[in-house]
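Sequence in, structure out. Go.
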Amino acid sequence: MPDMTKSDTTAAAPDAVEAAAPAPQPVKAEKTRSLWGDAWEDLRRNKIFLISAVLILLLLTITFFPGWFTSANPAYGDLSKHYLQKPQLGKLFSPEWLGYDQQGRSVYARLIYGARASIAVGFGTTIVVTVAGGLIGMIAGYFGGIVDSILSRLVDVFFGIPFLLGTMVVLNSFPERTAWVVIGALGFFGWTQLARVMRGAVITTKQSDYVQAAKALGASTPRILFRHILPNTLAPVIVVATISLGVYIGSEATLSFLGLGLNGVSWGNDISDGGNQIRVAQWIMLYPSIMLTITVLAFIMLGEAVRNALDPKTR
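Output:
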């Protein structure tokens, strides 16, 4: 057999190594996440967010399905059930579980049905404030000039009116204060903070390149506002709205406590009624107060968690 020369061996080695080398694998491009994707990943690992979300989910379930939790009528009063009879803490979820008030009504039933009024007023007011304040702030920030000056002075005027005092004056003129009346009164004086937040966000966003490009391409003003500016200014608005929701729930309870809130079953009304018997039947006032505190705290905790997740400075 013919012997291979040194040069032949050297020439064949690279070919063998090249043949044995694995083919290069295509590099997978990493999936980029948006601000909302990063925020959701942070919220999933945030214990405060998880606790507040569970509490809010439970409150919403109580609001929409109160019959799942009690069969008692919150407006029915049985005078044979004296309020000096202590709560039967061993009878869970029964009408006498948390005792009775001075009119023989179940405190537990009123606690369950009172959530509907407070949650409805809180969400309704937040929606009104978000829509009204968002539109006013968006128009003022985008157009600027005389429009911004007029709307900013309007905001300053409403800021000079104390929130609760102005709401009390408005509600005092209505003989029957339904949920819609209370929502309208709270929203009438509560839109100013969100308008300022939206105005500042729009002033910053309208300087962006994609907004200038949309203007250069001839996009209409409504398209620029709702297609390009609004989606990029929602983060601070959502944070303020979430925190304010708990504040509006507390404001409704305060108005009801003062006798200017809802005409019906409400935590604020029960707290006010229980104040007269606080020395002999503390539970009439205690349990609605605890429920109100947990509700307000849950929404404020949720707002704080969302703010930390959407704020790039905390990353």
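Check: The two ends are 72 Å apart (CA to CA). Residues 107-143 form the longest helix (37 residues).
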